[in-house]
Specification:
The chain has 17 helices and 29 strands. It has 719 residues and is of the alpha+beta class. It has three domains: 213 residues, no CATH class; 217 residues, no CATH class; 131 residues, no CATH class. The strands form eight sheets. Strands 1, 4, 7, 9, 10, 11, 21 and 24 form an eight-stranded mixed beta sheet that branches. A five-stranded antiparallel beta sheet has the order 16-15-14-13-18. The chain is elongated, with a radius of gyration of 37 Å.
């Protein structure tokens, strides 16, 4: 007679082989989604691909190999030949014993707390009958994994026989430890709960158990919808009870969802709320796996100067990043940003045994002016993985509510943001201070030669604020504007964990009965949902805004692009030192000039500026018979040195509140090409900024030509 357990082993072997081919990576980029707890009923249903090797990305089929951290280890039952018998009718044919199939273990509405050994092993079928299982462990988790590898090796589990457990590192030996234990993973085994998650998230989770890793963002994000569904089921059940048509299946569904909702509210939601209170006297500490709880989309983020300095050194700035020059301690950089979305590292149950840990990423942005409108400037900051706990203020970036004197920082940034807007609107300002040598990202300003770094210099005089002309002269100064919400792609990725779930005959591991794949959710798609939601709410879009919303004034930089009229070049200005209020001194009163000459100049200038303003409004056409001519006013002031030629021009510029653009013949060059190029640029800028242009020491251009000096003749004639 054949042994009664043989058929069961063969059946389990077949089921295990089937289960190994049901772990995929799913990617969808056309999903319409909303923010936390928002309605996702308009989103298309996300279902697994038709075959294990097919992945959808941007609507296009794509070859995909399921991620497998260690492969699915076959059990002893998979060999099939060790404990089988020969068919008497056909001695060469091996057959499985005929025994009753063990009934399927029912899933009860309960929660099971596990250590690591319990989480990846079953010592009786009933241990698999809980709706929710969770793994609670602390800094000893890596050591528990090492012990489990050793146990499986001693039990001669295939693929563990040649494994040296000492090769697996434990996080406990790497310093920076935190005390206590915490929930590391949650496994959903109830088909009722998985079905409910599928309905609210519009993703088909199927019927196989799935393990969600900390920070459990998918479970937390869709919890409000699960609550609504539970209340709806309760209301429907109460209605049936009133009609005397109670449904056992409906009550069972309610029990499972009540169990799940109670678990999330008791164990998971407090994780999100733990960083709501801020204590400046007792700095908070955090684990890397908990960073998602700390960051909330849309909140203000503080970026220390040391982070921007290190960020520049990691060469993520293209042509700007060729220099590893430390920023000065007084560098003016953008320190207040807004969070677009936070991307935690991929979930992996075996992370404590990895030597290289993945980083998380904070997607931030601030607001800047592009010459015509205000737009977002996005940047990504990696959060390097760390063991144990770390003070929040020592992170690369962190919410500004945890910064020292956060209210003062916000108040000061708002004041300088308002001044930034005023400077752009007024355009003609004064500056008496040192320039700054870097832009808001910590990049150094460059001269015409990108290889040369411009050091700060002292400016005392009039300045024209003009971003567009600065970008025309220095294209490398222009930042990348606009959020990348259109680039976000939906991806729910699952992996086969390196520890399959093993079913043993007893707690002593006398015999391995079967194994099943432990499906771990590595990427749960919540970051895509949050990013898309913020992108739809983004008021700036691609075209920007003409006016900055009040809540975003704090995001404006402390750097202005200006043109120093006396130095005749574009520079970086510290908005703090820009003066918009000009001294009201009547210089004409002190000008020693004949009254009738002053009256003639005054009348001509008044008529010229009034006519120019009227032409801009389209009120009067040009009165010159030749199109494009007769629109300028030229004065020739002559006399010996010291009689007030330059003073007259300066007094008139002050009276009419016009920028005075003063140049000399030496600024134009000595060759015909240089003179023509310089005059073209100067006339263009003077016209754009509505300047009074003073060509001082113009004698060289007005002297009579000489046959012996052809070079000077060419400069004078322009040929």
């Amino acid at each position: 007679m054949l042994a009664p357990h043989r058929t069961y082993l063969s059946l389990i072997s077949i089921l295990t082989q089937v289960a190994r081919h049901q772990v995929h990576t799913y990617s969808v980029s056309t999903i319409s989604s909303t923010g936390p707890g928002a309605d996702v009923s308009d989103m298309p249903l996300r279902t697994p691909p038709s075959t294990p090797d097919q992945n959808t990305n941007d609507g296009q089929p794509k070859k995909h190999e399921p991620t497998d951290t260690a492969g699915s280890q076959p059990s002893e039952a998979d060999s099939g030949s060790k404990d089988t018998a020969k068919d008497p009718a056909n001695p060469a044919l091996l057959v499985a014993p005929e025994v009753p199939v063990i009934p399927e273990v029912p899933i009860v509405a309960g929660v099971r707390k596990c250590n690591f050994e319990q989480f990846v092993n079953r010592f009786s079928p009933k241990e698999a009958g809980y709706a929710v299982e969770y793994l609670e462990a602390g800094t000893e988790l890596g050591l528990e994994m090492t012990y489990e590898v050793a146990r499986r090796r001693r039990s001669k589990v295939k693929s563990y026989e040649d494994t040296n457990s000492s090769e697996h590192r434990s996080r406990r030996f790497e310093g920076g430890l935190s005390s206590g234990s915490w929930i590391q993973a949650v496994r959903i085994q109830s088909q009722t709960i998985l079905k409910a998650l599928s309905e609210v998230s519009r993703y088909t989770w199927g019927s196989e158990p799935h393990t969600f890793m900390r920070p459990f963002s998918h479970l937390i994000h869709f919890h409000p919808k699960i609550q609504e569904k539970l209340e709806s089921l309760k209301a429907a059940g109460a209605s049936l009870t009133d009609k005397g048509a109670d449904s056992p299946d409906s009550q069972d569904e309610i029990n499972h969802l009540e169990c799940y909702v109670s678990f999330v509210e008791t164990y998971l939601l407090p994780l999100v709320r733990q960083f709501e209170d801020v204590s400046y006297s007792n700095p908070r500490r955090i684990r890397h796996d908990d960073l998602w709880y700390l960051f909330r989309p849309g909140e203000l983020i503080y970026v220390p100067l040391k982070t921007l300095e290190a960020w520049d050194e990691r060469k993520v700035l293209g042509d700007w990043s060729d220099r590893k020059v430390p920023l000065p301690k007084n560098a003016i950089c953008q320190n207040i940003w807004r969070l677009e979305v936070f991307l935690p590292h991929d979930g992996d149950l075996g992370l404590p045994m990895h030597s290289d840990h993945p980083a998380s990423t904070a997607h931030l942005y601030f607001i800047d002016y592009d010459g015509s409108s205000y737009k977002t400037v996005p940047c990504n900051f990696d959060m390097t993985y760390f063991n144990g706990e770390k003070e929040i203020r020592s992170l690369e970036v962190y919410p500004i509510r945890f910064a020292a004197s956060s209210e003062s920082l916000i108040k000061e940034s708002r004041r300088w943001g308002q001044h930034f807007i005023k400077c752009i609107e007024q355009r003609h300002v004064s500056y008496k201070a040192w320039t700054i040598a870097n832009d808001p990202l910590g990049r150094f300003s460059l001269s015409a030669d990108p290889r040369k770094m411009t050091s700060p210099e002292f400016i005392d005089g009039d300045v024209i604020i003009d971003f567009q002309e600065a970008f025309n002269a220095r294209p490398i100064w222009k930042l990348n504007f606009g959020l990348r919400s259109d680039d976000w792609s939906s991806e729910i990725r699952t992996i086969r964990d390196k520890f399959p779930i093993l079913l043993w005959s007893d707690a002593a591991r006398s015999k391995l009965l079967s194994e099943s794949t432990n499906i771990v959710v590595a990427d749960d798609d919540v970051c895509f949902i949050e990013g898309k939601a913020l992108g739809r709410r983004d008021p700036y879009g691609k075209d920007g805004l003409g006016k900055v919303p009040e809540e975003d004034v704090v995001l404006l930089p402390r750097r202005l692009y200006g043109y120093a009229l006396r130095e005749r070049k574009f520079i970086f200005l510290n908005v703090k030192n820009v003066m918009t209020d000009r001294e009201d001194i009547e210089a004409l009163k002190y000008l020693q000039i004949e009254p009738h000459n002053q009256r003639i100049i005054d009348c001509l200038l008044t008529d010229h500026f009034n006519t120019k303003a009227a032409r801009k409004m389209g009120d009067i056409p040009s009165q010159d018979p030749i199109s494009g001519k007769g629109r300028n006013l030229v004065f020739l002031l002559h006399g010996p040195p010291g009689v007030g030629k330059t003073a007259t021009v300066e007094a008139m510029a002050q009276k009419y509140q016009k920028p005075l653009f003063s140049i000399t013949s030496g600024d134009l060059g000595s060759t015909p090409d240089a003179v023509e190029s310089s005059l073209t640029e100067i006339f263009h800028l003077a016209n754009v900024w509505d300047c009074i242009l003073l060509l001082d020491e113009a004698d060289v251009f007005l002297e009579e030509r000489e046959r012996s000096d052809l070079k000077r003749n060419a400069v004078v004639s322009g040929k």
